[in-house]
Structures
1.
Amino acid sequence: MKPRARLVAALACLGLLAVGCAKQAPLSTLHPEGPIARTEYGLWNVVFILAVVVFVLVEGAIVFAIFRFRRRKGDDSAPKQTHGNTRLEITWTIVPAILLATLTFPTVTTIFSLARAPKGAMQIQVQAQQWWWKYTYPKQKGITKQFTNANELHIPVGRPIRLALNSADVIHSYWVPALAGKQDVVPSRTNHLNIEAPHPGTYLGTCVEFCGLSHANMRLRVIAQTPSDFAKWAAGQAQNLHMPTSALGQKGMKTFLAQQCVGCHTIRGTAAAGNVGPDLTHVASRETFAGGIFDFNTRNLRKWLTDAPAEKPGSKMPAGVATMGLSKGDIQALIAFLEGLH
Amino acid sequence: MATITEDITTPAYDGPFRRPTETQKGIVSWLTTVDHKRIGILYGCTSLMFFLIGGSEALLIRLQLAHPNGHVLSAEQYNQIFTMHGITMIFLVVMPLGAAFFNYLIPLMIGARDVAFPRLNAFSYWTFLFGGLFIYSSFFLGGAPQCGWFCYAPLSTMGLPTTIGTLFYALGLQITGVASLVASVNFVTTIINMRAPGMSFFKMPMFVWMSLVVNFLLLFAMPVIAVALFELLFDTAFGTNFFNPAQGGDPVLWQHMFWLFGHPEVYILILPAMGIVSEVLPTFSRKPLFGYTFVAFSGVAIGFMGWGVWAHHMFAVGLGPIANSAFAISTMFIAVPTGVKIFNWLGTMWGGKLRFSTPMLFSIGFITMFTIGGLSGVTHSIVPSDYQQTDTYYIVAHFHYVLFGGAIFGLMSGIYYWYPKVTGKLLNEKLGKSHFWIMLIGFNVTFAPFHILGLQGMARRYYRYPAHEGFDFWNMVSTIGAFIIAFSILIFLINIVWTHLKEQPCGDDPWDARTIEWSIPNPTPHYNYLEIPVVHERDDWWHKKYTEDEQGNLVPALAGASEEATAHDEHAEPHMPRPSYWPLVAAAALPLFGYGVIIQWVFGAVGAVVLLVGIYGWAMEPVE
């Protein structure tokens, strides 16, 4: 192979490798799904290509100069002394300035269009706190009764969603790369973020502003559903809990209500009305829990109820066994209860 | 002061404030030195020590992230380590390493015997050292800062397991800030007032130009962060509500103040390296700096424009479309003067006879790597695209290309270039070149993958990341790269030892250099210039050695012209200022105030006494 061919082959392999990894990257910014993320990706493509062109030109010129103007062995003569060239200076001031000026138009227009509230958007309130997300769906077209949910944001496809974000404690940042760029969530302010999903599916997201011990454990997902599936889901979420039917589940409910669980969690239809942790009325309808770091299953629930802070540093949920004094049987019953909360 | 020529037979003063006499030997001579060169060496060695510490922290970070769900560090340890890595590299390595060059070189390059305020200069160094040690003492006194290097409120004031680290952050950076502020006054005064006869502003070496810009930036930026740090301290220690949203404070105010300091700070970190590169390239191309005035003015332009771009660190905060648009545009256009610099460096090399000695390699490394960082910087200014990239590893890649590929490569170039000026010996070239190539490779293996990781959605400041999200491979690559960098630094250290033991003195002008500091012997005599030189040309020393004919061809100047300048008369050594105890004493008071806030008010009371004694001693000690 000629050296150049070898270089091309190497670059192609590298490119494939990068793309290959990107395929399994659910948070990738290079695979936009929603229209907003696509708009942002479009601008990225423009500036990226421009940057690559400039990169090749500048680095190429440097490499050329390095080889062309290196001192040959035994050559001690001095080069011609040049001090500058005003015409060149003006050129390389003005050309980049014009190039950048052309970028300002799409940038500024896109900034404004992304900030606008889309017509007919569904309004959802997002409250961030260390280290989970609380969603409140107010009563509006398509939602007959207000309800709250945690970490997993369900939305209908094809309808723009306007999130109103605020924080109960420190600054967080809401990011679902496939749907839209991030928006910081600042206490005492309400920021807005538009998202839209074109087709049903699950889109991963995460907190991207450093927010303390478990910043890495503050994840989220957006679940886009067809309008009819969404309506069904929303109607289900607005209901009170499904009473446990099994004996173990009923024991679990009793344990839950007798324990300090009620101080922090709400389960609509019971006396539990705490406001510190997520609303658990329909916790079993979620794919994940604990800031989206665990799949919702028996094994993970047992780990979590046994020692939450060990799984999620700084968690406000006390250690079940060591602090709350739960027995193995209590935990078993609690799991049965929680798993029934569809 | 450069012009003191009093009769040295005056009987020595013997009162309680008498000054130490030994200037050349022993530990006391180092503790009490007011010689800008020795202070420069102290700055350099101290920041290299911190560089090793900050680098070790980087290795810990990379070990933790080598695999998904890493267990090397706990979440809290990881947060402390990445915070300290940032604080160390910015405030205790790159800034003071720049100060080391300012100290050693500015007086030499402008033909002076010292800085304007030699004792104040010593005070700057000791304050910096004590500030750094103060911050690091946090590891033993309740926990290091864990709020990230920009320490956003209200996380830093109330959202952490312990806020003691925030106190160390606020007080420690306040102390090192005093060092920078005092030094900036000193250097601005020195450059404006103490240039040798004939050295007009446009005959100054480019490094001095860039130093002037940096020190003006420091002069205006440090007060901003000082105010912000006091507010942060008051919020954390005394329960005020500057940034507390629950009581009507505004957390975004901290961000504005921090980045209003923080963006000029970026140029404070990079401009010294740009100055160094502007000296090294002409020497090794055997051509003058291309477009001198444009390089100088683009540096000044960067200095001014650097104040108008801070909110590009905050595009996702929700400042609204108007603010975001304005800062997008200003950010795009700050790329223009930066580009002008790069093109002029290219113009300097163009048509030259390039010698690839180690300093030249590092300077070229600077240009190539900084260009990458600059271009990724331009991509951030496209706000909607930045909504995706900000706070990901793409940003981490960007600023490491600018601050490591840029600043550190440039500063390394300067270390290799001026090493003979300090020690009289050239660092070994073979080891130097392997240092360069291994560092260049290691640097790119470490930080190039960050671009990909960021675009794939890996967020910053995660103490762990889950498997199967596409982050495993490139994190492993990056960790391997980090150890390659560490290996290159080891070669650098070996080079220093080797050179010390084995290399021969290299003579006074080993690079056939251009600026007047090379007209005096290596290592520099403690009085610098026997006679204050008279400057006739830009690159005055070069023009003593060579002249240009009308076609721009170089012809050697008349024989003997260059020797004349280095003539050395042992009997007429200029009289230099005496050392002093008091800068050290006064500086020692500052960390005591810090401990007074954090541990026990008694420390503060002791600090007040020490400061009073220090200032009185300083004021009362005699000239002799």
2.
Amino acid sequence: MTQSYLSIEGIARRFQAPGGKGSTVFEDLWFSMNKGDFAAIIGHSGCGKTTVLNILAGLDAPDEGAVVMDGKAIEGPSLDRAVIFQSHALLPWKSVLGNVAYAVASRHRDWSRDRVRAHAERFIEVVGLKGAEHKKPAELSGGMKQRVGIARALSIEPKMLLMDEPFSALDALTRGTLQDEVRRICLETGQTVFMITHDVDEAIYLADRIVLMTNGPQACVAEIVDNPLPRDRRRLDLHKQPDFYAVRNHLIDFLVERSRTFKDGLPPDYDRRRPPVVRPAHLPPTPPDGVRAA
Amino acid sequence: MLPLRLRAALLSVLILVVFLLAWQGATAGFGGGGGGPATGMDPEYAKLMGLTATTGKSAMPSPVEVGRQLWAVLSDPFYDKGPNDKGLGIQLAFSLARVLIGYGIAVAVAIPLGFVIGMSPLMSRALDPFIQVLKPISPLAWMPLALYTIKDSGISAVFVIFICSVWPMLLNTAFGVASVRKEWLNVARTLEVGPLKRAFTIILPAAAPTILTGMRISIGIAWLVIVAAEMLVGGTGIGYFVWNEWNNLSITNVIIAILVIGVMGMMLDQILATVARLVTFPE
């Protein structure tokens, strides 16, 4: 666990409710990621997913515990971690180029204007927005806006990408295309990604590991699903993969039933520090060491 | 069917013509001759009373007279024949200078202070009672205090302009700054943008439309107040001009001054409206 690239170590977050009674969103939360991992976190509203992401981003601080990334404790926002916001959060008075260049110039404060511009243009091209550099966000469709958000996050070449339901505001068609591109870019660059999602299929397609969180308050990590699908999976024939429905049913079953009841009947060997790792499969396989089949 | 803009323009012209005709009709004399109110009046008394009594002519000038006088005034706006007889252009320039100085100082105070109030809930709450009490005070109520402490009447007028234009800008700036979207601030935070740079690159552009709204309200109030202030302090300015012409009983010049005040106010407002359009962003 100490070798992990990112390690969340026993964090808790409490909110002071009016009237003096505090409420604990989650406590004693443990989770770790290796470099190049793509992890998705799934859970119902109110389980504190966004709070976890904000803590990783440094926009919020845990009341207990700590998060260590690349050997350093996270103590506030940093250019090492880029956030792709659900609402894309573009600056509406700046053009596409202006929005991306703002991030690039913040990252590389000593760069010349031309160099910043060239760097920004390269990432605008990566997300397929070449030709729209001088448009204002208001002139773009929802999908294009989120592309700008992705370009802005990638342009600072962060150690880690944090995505807060990045595709939830998009229509199904646009969402699919953007998922493909995000997966391609992340695989090509070996980007470490932490994503929040509500969409089970999105999690299965994009993530290597899926973190299941129980319902709040006092939410915890119920288990970590190791995605059994091959790494070269494609969105179009995802449902034809032999293990697809095993994973999908496992996730849906968790969201519908177990996210609510999990805490009432904790497995005897449940350890908050090492939540069980599950690898759903269509046939009972011979499980590798330390990995339990569901 | 003509386009809406053209129809509106035609209607505007029509309304103006009707208004001018009504004015002309209302101010035309009874035509003199027999049957007028002067019949049987003591000739000396009639001479004293002037045309108003003898021919029934109104002291209110007709639009033609105003037009003629307007042309005369506008063709030589910058003459200076002593303290009581200056061209309309000179008077207007005095008023504009006072407004711009007082307004400029108000901008310099209100926008930074508004930033502080908008960014700090502590300052916002601490200063709120003062603002709530000071804001509703009529700017002219400050005049005696200003005259006593500043002693110079011209600077007192500038002070009154300052005090009346500072509040809308202060409140709008504070509101605009306080309601900058959290997500934009979070973008700046994740990019490790420093507080000063954040104020200039995120908060200022985001709050600019609201700030400009405040500035536009303020310039309107400042232009309203300068006339009243100059009537009180006297000496120079368009407000003084109005009062002076009233004392001269030159209703024509009063009407001309009213017209000029209106046009100038509109121009000031339009300048700020243009700036506001430049900083407004669609979402």
